[in-house]
Write a structure and sequence with these properties.
The protein is 55% helix and 6% strand. The longest helix is centred in the middle third of the chain and has 39 residues. It is mainly alpha-helical. It has 32 helices and ten strands. It is elongated, with a radius of gyration of 37 Å. The strands form four sheets. The chain has a four-stranded antiparallel β-sheet, with no helix packed on it. The N and C termini lie far apart (90 Å).
């Protein structure tokens, strides 16, 4: 046994020598002979033994001469001989390449199962078990189809071990942390082959290594999940195009000839890929929306799992499965059902992800047919509630404004002189004494308490829309605050308004000496600012509300930088102006100095006082430097920043289209705000529940899923070949919405279209008719009544 281990370690030493050698070295022939002699002795089983894989390469294994300098022992670290050979860097058509290729082929011929050798080890600090890279992973990354074909063919020869090989390859998952930002992030060999976007390698892993198509890694990601994550982390446009082609290749089942099985097995496994959830409880469609991969999202959305084109009837209905788009989780009708439900626990909606995206990405997702249909249907339901709330808010904030003005009236003002005995303001209309002021204040306290209690119920009981933009709490808060379609800022202002109303009434009714309507001032400002929350759903104001929220963030950053300069120059000017020959006390202390410099910055202050300083030249120099750095530099930078923000909001879609998209996304923001507070029974569920086969917890089960039916062919092309009369009937039935009894005359161009429909495919009939009418200067659409339609039946 020790002799076998020594000979096996010499193979590792030979590979070390090959890796260090140059192309003009004469050691390649010696190494080849040693590998040839080793396999002739038929002791290859020792290559898999633990004492060898966890041993060290010593100078005795290297067969060093006494004149050569000794080297340190090198640990093998569980790596197989084949893995060491594959990791040797070589140049194509060189002697080293030829020698390494000979060694690899020799290993594949004698021990083909070594390509699946998976080294597992335990981290001593965390205690987590990790799996390292295998020779199969390296071959896939190199896209060496010849090696994979040879290894798969040699494995197939071992028929008695085929089932064991299948189990072993499905158990391979390289999960080291260093792989997370590389193509190895998929873990499984099939997942890595998918991320290389090489169709040939993908088919070889399926056919020759018998990998399961639905295999998942440690995080529960299948090959589609991994492809979406890798595309998100790789900004290269060329790779995005490759990933789209690879996803189309997988979903269109072009690989089905690579596997043997029932005719419907490929279709079933493909559907299964799109229905599986990873450890984040996300399907590939949800993950594509969360990672803002709109092109991959569209490919998945148009698959038969989500897009069902029904051509049985004449209307060519398109049905979309909107379970992941709908904001509400699907509920089971029978609470005694022993089976697990389709949606359990936390449900993250695609609409929620859209609201957390920047403008350009949100525009793309909001323009998808199912997304905009769901938004439209929900808004039709919630708009009356929302506009009623808007009217109520306007009435209340107007009354609050009247009360604020009424309560500010004074009987006598406090005198700040030293000999004055009046140190408290006496108001004319006091809470608890004036009926109108007391009623409005008490009603404001009631509304504030209701909102705060409702907010607590939302966080404790409802717990809806908890998708996190980042796992870190602070970063998640900042991202939500900065997103243009997030409700976090408005929620804060509603909370601020509620707190101020409660504190104002409590302090005013208690007759606290120092209190002079401070919280009421903040409440009035917050209340009128919240009018923007209601205006955002109106198309003429939607862009301005988004712009105001974005500009406020720019102002916050600008104010921080401006405050640095203001404090610095106010301190300097306060020092210079001490002892000035003037009666003004603008620079008496630091606070007045800051106010004075701020007025100078805004152009409303006088600069004559600087000539009264003890050193007027120094004062003027500091003043000029202050103007250059603030008025000229920072203010112009603020203008450029605001202009850039405006451009970012409108560059994705131009003109009216951009305002329309902003309005749609603002309505989505309102919908999410309302549904986050309303109980389930008051929320709008879009679509109808139907029995479809879904994948849950590793099994196929019939479930009631949420679908939506569309009878209008928007951006969808249908193909059919039938007679002209039948095609006319189909198109007329689509236009039965027009109940007018007026008979329209069909033009000659429209008759020509009718004649050619029997020979070509139907592609947007309505669009084609309108185009021919425009050639005659007539832009009307062909709307016919029932009497006209009967002529063609």
């Amino acid at each position: 046994m020790p002799d076998k281990l020594s000979k096996a370690r010499k193979l590792y030493a030979c590979l070390e020598k090959v890796a260090d050698s140059k192309d003009d070295d004469q050691t390649y022939d010696i190494v080849k002979k040693k590998f040839k002699r080793f396999f002739k002795k038929k002791i290859s089983d020792v290559l898999f033994q633990t004492p060898l894989l966890h041993g060290h390469i010593t100078d005795a294994d290297r067969e060093k001469k006494s004149t050569e300098e000794p080297k340190e022992d090198v640990p093998i670290n569980g790596e197989s001989v084949l893995l060491r050979a594959l990791l040797i860097p070589t140049l194509s058509c060189s002697e080293k390449f030829t020698s390494v290729d000979y060694i690899i082929n020799k290993l594949i011929d004698h021990v083909p199962e070594m390509i699946l050798h998976n080294n597992k080890y335990t981290n001593e600090i965390t205690g987590k078990v990790y799996s390292s890279i295998t020779p199969l992973h390296v071959a896939v990354l190199k896209e060496d189809s010849k090696l994979l074909y040879r290894a798969g063919h040699m494995l197939t020869k071992k028929g008695d071990k085929l089932e064991h090989v299948i189990d072993k390859i499905n158990g391979i998952d390289a999960n080291e942390e260093t792989y997370q930002n590389t193509l190895m992030m998929a873990g499984t060999p099939l997942g890595v082959a998918t991320l290389t976007c090489n169709v040939e390698i993908f088919c070889l892993i399926l056919s020759h290594f018998h990998s399961e198509l639905t295999i998942v890694n440690e995080k529960g990601d299948n090959i589609v999940h991994s492809l979406i994550k890798c595309t998100h982390r790789n900004p290269d446009p060329l790779y995005k195009e490759k990933s789209k082609s690879m996803l189309n290749f997988i979903l269109n089942m072009k690989w089905r000839e690579c596997i043997k099985g029932k005719p419907g097995a490929a279709r079933e496994e493909t559907r299964l890929l799109l229905m599986m959830k990873n450890e984040e409880k996300l399907t590939p469609l949800q993950l594509a929306a969360k990672r803002e991969q709109n092109e991959l999202f569209e490919i998945i959305l148009q698959h038969e799992v989500y897009c069902l084109k029904d051509s049985v009837d004449c209307t060519h209905n398109v049905k979309y499965d909107i379970t992941e788009v709908e904001t509400l989780a699907l509920e089971a009708e029978d609470s005694n059902d022993k089976h697990e439900h389709l949606q359990t626990g936390r449900h993250e909606s695609i609409l929620e992800y859209v609201a957390l995206q920047d403008t350009e990405s949100a525009f793309r997702f909001a323009d998808f047919l199912p997304v905009r249909k769901v938004i439209r249907a929900k808004w039709q339901y919630y708009r009356y509630l929302f506009y009623g709330w808007f009217a109520f808010h306007l009435v209340f904030i107007s009354l609050l404004t009247v009360v604020a003005l009424r309560r500010s009236k004074l009987v006598s003002a406090p005198d700040n002189s030293a000999n004055s005995t009046t140190d408290k303001a006496i108001f004319r209309y006091i809470v608890n004494e004036d009926m109108f002021v007391t009623t409005v204040g008490a009603f404001g306290v009631f509304l504030g308490c209701v909102f705060i209690i409702w907010m607590l119920v939302r966080f404790i009981a409802i717990r809806r829309f908890e998708a996190k933009a980042s796992p870190k709490v602070l970063r998640n808060f900042l991202i939500r605050w900065a997103m243009p379609y997030s409700n976090l800022a408005f929620e804060f202002y509603f909370f601020l308004l509620s707190i101020c109303l409660i504190l104002d009434f409590s302090l005013a009714s208690s007759s606290v000496d120092w209190y002079e309507n401070y919280f009421l001032i903040v409440a009035v400002i917050a209340g009128w600012y919240l009018v923007l929350f209601f205006l955002q759903s109106l198309k003429p104001f939607s862009f301005f509300t988004v712009l105001i929220q974005k500009v406020i963030l720019d102002l916050m950053r600008f104010s921080f930088v401006m405050s640095i300069f203001l404090v610095a120059f106010s301190t300097a000017m306060s020092m210079i102006m001490q002892g000035a020959d003037t009666t003004d006390d603008d620079f008496e202390h630091f606070g007045k100095s800051v106010v004075k410099m701020l007025t100078v910055l805004l152009g409303i202050g006088e600069m004559d006082i600087f000539f009264q300083a003890r050193q007027p030249i120094l004062a003027l120099l500091v003043f000029v430097l202050f103007v250059l750095l603030t008025t000229i530099l920072l203010l112009n930078a603020l203008i450029a920043l605001m202009s850039n923000s405006c451009t970012d909001l409108m560059r994705s879609q131009g003109g009216a289209v951009g305002s329309k998209m902003h309005s749609r996304l603002q309505k989505l923001s309102v919908i999410l705000f309302l549904e986050s507070y309303l109980p389930r029974c008051c929320c709008k569920e879009v679509g109808e529940k139907k029995d479809k086969y879904r994948y849950t917890e590793g099994r196929w089960r019939p479930r009631r899923i949420l679908t939506n039916v569309y009878s209008k062919t928007e951006n969808v092309t249908f193909f059919s070949r039938t007679s002209p009369a039948s095609l006319w009937r189909q198109w007329f039935r689509k236009n039965k919405m027009n109940k007018t009894e007026k008979t329209l005359e069909i033009s000659q161009h429209e008759r020509q279209i009718c004649d050619k429909w029997g020979q070509v495919d139907i592609v947007h009939i309505e669009t084609e008719v309108v185009r021919h009418n425009e050639a005659e200067g007539n832009t009307r659409k062909l709307n016919v009544c029932q009497k006209c339609a009967k002529r063609f039946r």
